[in-house]
From TrEMBL:
Native organism taxonomy: Bacteria, Pseudomonadati, Bacteroidota, Cytophagia, Cytophagales
Name used for this protein in its record: Uncharacterized protein
Transmembrane segments: 55-74
Keywords: Membrane, Signal, Transmembrane, Transmembrane helix
Signal sequence segment: 1-27
The organism of origin for this protein: Hymenobacter sediminicola
Amino acid sequence: MKKVVLTALFALVLGILFSLSPRTAAAQCTMCKTQVESARSEKDGYDFSGLNKGILYMAAIPYLLVGAVGYFWYRNTKAKKLARK
């Protein structure tokens, strides 16, 4: 049990360190990148500056939801085990 908690804590700290990294994340798939480059060359007047952030935001939400469900499931299971003793 202690090993699982330490592993989860390590993963959390590692995730926080990577999220605070000063590098910009290239979250665009090949299709999105091609469309943005072609639109920029055509000078359509569209602003694509937030596209990477939007893609990262949409990708992070499912992971956060699954993590929250896992946390509450773990907490509920732990409470049931303590109640049995």
